[in-house]
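Subject: design request, 429 residues
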């Protein structure tokens, strides 16, 4: 949906999602379509964090009201778990689809999603929770959020199902949905029709449970890493990204854990017959944060030198590490990162400098005598380099420049020193 060719007008405005805008108009004008969009987000795992819905439309108040109506009408329900982390208990609220919601989709959306016809009729009571460890469940909910975000870009998620010992004959949501999909694909195949494969090895997202299965983790290790390890692996266009989710305490990244994740990712890619080039390209990462405060905490933890101990250089861990808040505007930047990053960065340099100017590094350059970075992608590897230079004693009186979108200034001002100024891309002639 988001992978569209960039025109000159779109480069100037940062608008890469014309189809998404049309879809949003339909979403706002038709309540039933809005209901369908939200309920279909649940048809992956049956559960999700409310923040995952923020990428459907930028009108968050409308989405919040629609979620509230769906809850009141009995289509979805609120769930709560308590997570023990960083020596304190954190209450996490998530949402779960109910049989009434699945039944509504089956009765009203079979034309758009034919496989819904193969769900049981009437839809029976089912269980959406098969993970008893709350820390593991929370980590999986974070991964589901990333999966929903990537689905907006046509990126599929590997769907696995581990059968649970079912002595009480409980109907599990995941089992019911995967059986319906399989029955639909089987009938279409028998009729001589070719069904598009869900697994496209050049454009796919793996949940962390599929990656970590290469290791034997103790329950204590799983508990300790629930807030700090990767949620999944994104493989797209001959590149791969480790995907993380921030928290109120930021994200903890260590060289050993990142390298171990690369080893497990290599095993996973090898098992799925994905080329060595993709494994070697597994040097980048994406961190999703819930809001500006969480973004700030994560930035400070990873970028700003610690008061005690050895400073952590992010360029030793990643080539690029993009720190993105979960909001509709960030989806434009994610589209740029995944599909148009090099092209747009080169375009902005040419727009700023013409054919003159001294390039200092790949991501940094001099513009009107000031060290400048393109900050659309919110890459904390190059931002850390800019931060340290701007804070050094010899550069206290020098000015530094970040070229960014208008909405990103709020985020950068939270963490950058006063000698950093911001050029809004829309205002550059």
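Subject: RE: design request

Done. Sequence follows.
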């Amino acid at each position: 949906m988001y992978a569209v060719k960039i025109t000159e007008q779109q480069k100037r405005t940062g608008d890469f999602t014309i189809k998404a805008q049309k879809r949003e108009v339909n979403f706002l004008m038709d309540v039933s379509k809005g209901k369908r969009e939200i309920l279909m987000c649940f048809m992956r795992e049956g559960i999700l964090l409310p923040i995952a819905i923020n990428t459907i439309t930028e009108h968050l108040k409308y989405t919040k009201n629609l979620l509230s109506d769906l809850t009141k009408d009995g289509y979805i329900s609120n769930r709560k778990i308590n997570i023990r982390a960083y020596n304190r208990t954190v209450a996490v609220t998530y949402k779960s689809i109910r049989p009434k919601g699945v039944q509504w989709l089956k009765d009203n959306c079979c034309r758009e999603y034919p496989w819904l016809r193969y769900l049981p009729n009437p839809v029976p009571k089912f269980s959406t929770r098969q993970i008893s460890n709350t820390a593991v469940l929370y980590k999986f909910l974070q991964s589901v959020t990333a999966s929903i975000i990537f689905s907006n870009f046509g990126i599929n998620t590997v769907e696995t199902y581990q059968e649970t010992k079912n002595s009480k004959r409980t109907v599990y949501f995941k089992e019911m949905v995967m059986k319906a999909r399989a029955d639909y694909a089987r009938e279409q195949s028998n009729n001589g029709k070719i069904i598009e494969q869900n697994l496209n090895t050049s454009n796919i997202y793996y949940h962390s449970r599929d990656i970590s299965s290469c290791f034997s983790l103790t329950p204590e290790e799983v508990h300790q890493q629930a807030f700090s390890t990767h949620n999944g692996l994104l493989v797209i266009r001959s590149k791969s990204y480790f995907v993380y989710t921030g928290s109120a305490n930021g994200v903890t990244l260590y060289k050993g854990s990142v390298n171990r994740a690369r080893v497990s990712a290599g095993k996973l890619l090898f098992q799925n017959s994905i080329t060595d080039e993709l494994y070697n390209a597994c040097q980048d990462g994406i961190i999703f944060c819930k809001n500006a405060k969480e973004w700030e905490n994560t930035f400070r933890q990873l970028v700003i030198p610690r008061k005690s101990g050895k400073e952590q250089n992010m360029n030793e861990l990643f080539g690029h590490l993009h720190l993105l808040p979960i909001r509709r505007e960030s989806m434009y930047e994610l589209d740029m990162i995944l599909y148009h990053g090099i092209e747009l960065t080169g375009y902005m340099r040419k727009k700023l400098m013409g054919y003159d100017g001294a390039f200092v590094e790949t991501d940094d350059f001099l513009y009107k005598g000031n060290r400048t970075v393109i900050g659309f992608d919110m890459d904390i590897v190059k931002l850390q380099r800019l931060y340290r230079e701007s804070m050094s004693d010899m550069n206290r009186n020098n000015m530094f420049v970040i070229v960014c979108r208008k909405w990103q200034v709020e985020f950068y001002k939270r963490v950058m020193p006063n000698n950093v100024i911001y050029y809004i891309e829309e205002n550059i002639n």
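The chain is about 40% helix and 15% strand.
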